[in-house]
Amino acid sequence: MLGGAALGSLAWPLDLVLGCVAVLTPRGARPVRPVAALVAWHRRRTSRLLAWADDDAPLTSPRAAAYLATRVAVGLLGLVVLALLAYGLFAVVVGLASWLFDVRFTVEMPVRGEEPGVTTASMLILVPLGAVLLYLDLMGLYGVGVLDRAAAARWLAPSRSERLAAQVESLTVSRAELLAALDAERGRIERDLHDGVQQRAVAVGLLVDRARRAGVAAGGPGVGLLEQASREVGLLVTDLREVAWRVRPTTLDTHGLEPVLRQLVDRAAVPTTLEWRCAVRLPGPVETTVYYVVAEALTNVAKHSGARTAQVELTSDAHDGGAVVRVTVGDDGVGGAQALPGHGLAGLAGRVAAAGGAITVDSPAGGPTRIGVTLPCA
What we know:
Blueprint: H1 2-9, H2 12-24, H3 33-49, H4 61-101, H5 109-112, H6 120-155, H7 160-218, H8 223-247, H9 251-254, H10 257-267, E1 272-277, H11 284-305, E2 310-319, E3 322-331, H12 344-354, E4 358-362, E5 369-376
Helix pairs in contact: 1-3, 1-4, 1-6, 2-4, 4-6, 7-8, 10-11, 11-12
């Protein structure tokens, strides 16, 4: 650490010159290459020699100017400490030479008095005094290193607001990646159900039908049971198709969102109409989010609203320089819907927020209820 502080103290002339260059740089621009190179050298020096944790925060011209200006003050202070240390070492060499070899130097005049050279008694006084001064000088140089590290932490590390913004961005990306992984897993489960379990159920149904026909031809007593088994297998295949479709419909990737929503509306327990006002196909992640929003909203309508009719509206337009899609799901039920933790609307709010959108719930007591979702299409 003493070496790092001493090395930084000797660089103050460069700090002064390039600090002035950084001050003259336009505020919004990045620092010029020599300024950036000097600051990068200071970052490496403080991280390797002064035990500073560098997190590679982006460097701006105002930060570079402020850091180099602070570095000039710290460097000058360190230079004074180094000069005192050098003078003390020179005094040690001169004192020893005068004591051992009777060499005359001007530096020995304050302790020599009228006696020729430095005497043994004078040396006995100077040695402990010099040791104390050396300790204080080294502690001063250590303090310069601490100030150097503090300057780097103040001007080269991200501020608290920047750290919070980076954490928010990281959490947003992580949540979006988690939802993408969840959607991919839903697609895999749907394919497994469609291509595996459903096909086996169909095969079992065919075998039961063959056994039933053979039993009818032979006049066996178990024909009634085989007919019942055939009906149960048919219901099983239908349920598997419904479950696979609710997990993630295959037509969402092949045909797009509109036919999936129309099929979803046709299957809704409450009579529902769909108004589609979107001229182009939406991005895949947006289509997936819209599908789950509409599916969950219609499920809530069927379970809790007591509504007679429901409406789904989807529009796409430009907003603040970018395209957005707006989805509205309404019903004429009893109202009172709230996005409480652990309920369906809270899950919808989390999914919409992860996609960068916003959700509003307008559901006064007595109804009607309107759920509005806005999603960016970027």
